[in-house]
Amino acid sequence: MSISTTSGVPTLAGGYITLSNIKQPTDLESRRTKIVCTLGPACWEVPQLETLIDAGMNVARFNFSHGDHEGHLACLNRLREAANNRKQNVAVMLDTKGPEIRTGFFADDAKKINLIKGETIILTTDYSFKGSKDKLACSYEKLATSVKPGQSILIADGSLVVEVIECNVEAGEVSCRIKNNASIGERKNMNLPGVTVDLPTLTEKDVDDIQNFGIKHGVDFIAASFVRKGSDVTRIREVLGDKGQGIKVISKIENLEGLQNFDSILRATDAVMVARGDLGMEIPPEKVFLAQKLMIRECNIAGKPVITATQMLESMIQNPRPTRAECSDVANAVLDGTDCVMLSGETANGSHFEEAVKFMAGTCCEAEATENFNLLYQSVRNSCLGRYGTMSTAESIASSAVKTAIDVKAKLIVVFSETGATARQIAKFRPGMPVCVLTPSERIARQTFGILKGSYAFVVDSLENTDALVQETTDEVKKAGVCKDGDPYVLVCGNTFGMGATNQVKVEFVRTNYWDEPGEHQSSAKRVGEDNPKGCTIS
Q1: If you ran DSSP here, which 8-state letter would residue 215 be given?
Q2: Residue 358 belongs to what H/E stretch?
Q3: CA distances from 290 to 184, 259, 287, 293 (A)
Q4: Which of 69, 261, 263, 368 has its CA 20 to 30 A from that of 111?
Q5: Alpha-carbon distance 122 to 132, whole Å?
Q6: 61 catalytically annotated
């Protein structure tokens, strides 16, 4: 016996899955989880960007570990052209390079050095030193005072592991034993698991990138690398200043210190990225899934969007199909509660960037089809009350709106939002129906469509003509096949436009032509609509 996904009956994992879930075609139009795509040489021309948008890209990620401002601006202009051609509110994410520790250069113009298990190697903090198999330079000046004998150092994404034997603080050198055979090139990344690294979250390059590119060219998100404490987010907001206050901060959690200070980071940030690449170097790989589930749950309770990233469909950089394990990884992130999933090299450098997005979109849809949104709503609400004991006014209104939509079997929720705060609160309670967000701000539309789960955004001229907007919106969703005449929907709005306040939740019904209906209508929007049936333009 199968159990409906609207049932209130607790069940074992997989209790909502039937054979029909496996046999029926994937409904890509139902996708709620958002997709972040990293742009690169493989996909950064206008036709290719249009292909990514059509396949399901919600956010375009610009990786500032590579390239310069001129190259990124050219790509950004092409992206905006493609988004305009496709009439989509595609958000832009600037991902900072952040602080890093790297090995140095080699002597005698060597391209690689071969290291043998069991031999000894010295790491020196004199970065001008040209290295060999016996001694390598390290860019971290405080290495000798930061590590201790017995600790491991990971080099080149963990392909080389060395164990600290002795630290010579005066000489700035650390003697290590090589734990495995490896061949490495110059300037490889280094990770110090369990070490509190004394490096700034924002380097001079990061500040320049944020102020002279991000703010100047109107990006929507700053993804800050190696955020380790709440004060790091405060520092980022200081760099953004008044000119960049509309840009949302996404804190990338990449090491143990960030995990230990996660509560303070979550309070300060707008969103979180579970950056599993470096995190898997900093904590045991077998514990990364625990950190992922922990952070996603905390973000869900706080109502902060969360992105799960790194190596999700890594094999598709080369192959036209993902592995089964990769699809399961994406699906499990969705079931964990992630708002977004991210592609890196799969789109930036891969030959199969379109297929990668399509496989990711399809996997998200299949995972979402097994979720019980009634129980999910109750779980979020009960977790919030269990954690905080009470809800804010905005949370309570959002919770009531979603509960009402469930009770009346609404086909969608329409939200009027000037700042995006109401839309975020609605998305927090995970409604099973689409959330249609109307906003006068193009940036809010991009941010909402970009990372809020299950939300679609439309830019309108003004939020004052409520009835005109509602009529035009329901006309559009009828055309899209989301609802039909007589279907209920829930409207969330306020009567204090310009102040960012939400204080109304109403149940309405889809109507063919609002203006032709008999009866007394007192709203100014009704009178405006009679004179101008088109109402406000949605773009």
Answers
A1: I
A2: helix 353-368
A3: 31, 11, 5, 5
A4: 69
A5: 10
A6: yes
Question: Over the range 485-519, which residues count as b (16 or more CB within 10 Å of their CB) and which as e?
Answer: eebbbbbbbbeeeeeebbeebeebebbeebbeeee
Catalytic-role residue among 31, 32, 61, 453 = 61
Residue 7 has a pLDDT of: 57
496 given a catalytic annotation: no
| CB of 427 closer than 8 Å to CB of 435 | yes
Count, residues in the chain: 539
> For 366-423, what is the HEC assignment?
HHHCCCCHHHHHHHHHHHHHHHHCCCCHHHHHHHHHHHHHHHCCCCCEEEECCCCHHH
Residues 6+ apart with CB under 8 A from 403: 377
Residues with Cβ within 8 Å of 131's Cβ and at least 6 positions away in sequence, in order, are 103, 104, 105, 106, 107, 113, 137
**Partner residues linked to 507 by β-bridges:** 490
The answer to whether 444 and 89 have CB atoms below 8 angstroms apart is: no
Give the Cα separation of 507 and 23 in Å (integer).
36
- 252 catalytic, yes or no? yes
d(CA 410, CA 406): 7
Looking from the CA of 522 toward its CB, the CA atoms found within 13 Å total 0
On the question of pLDDT at 470 being above 90, the answer is: no
Which of 5, 33, 310, 338 does the annotation list as catalytic?
A: 310
User: Which among 351, 352, 350, 315 has a CA at the least distance from the CA of 330?
Assistant: 315
How many alpha carbons fall within 13 Å on the CB side of residue 168? 12
Spatial separation of the C-alpha atoms in residues 169 and 189, rounded to whole Å:
22
* DSSP type of residue 210: I
Compute how many other C-beta atoms are within 10 angstroms of the C-beta atom of residue 268.
Answer: 18
State the angle between helix axes of 353-368 and 324-336 in degrees (0 to 180), rounded to the nearest 10: 50
Nearest-angstrom CA–CA distance, 489 and 409: 8
Write the pLDDT tens digit of every residue in 353-394: 999 999 999 999 999 999 999 999 999 999 999 999 999 998
Identify residue 84 by its one-letter amino acid code.
N
Q: Which of 34, 78, 228, 252 is an active site residue? A: 252
For β-strands 271-275 and 59-63, DSSP reports them as: unpaired
Handedness of CA 489, 490, 492, 494 (dihedral sign): positive
Strand partners, 162: 153, 178
pLDDT digits (tens, 9 = 90+) for 102-133: 999 999 999 999 999 999 999 999 999 999 99
β-pairing verdict for 504-509 and 59-63? unpaired
From the candidates 102, 205, 235, 293, which is the catalytic residue?
Answer: 102
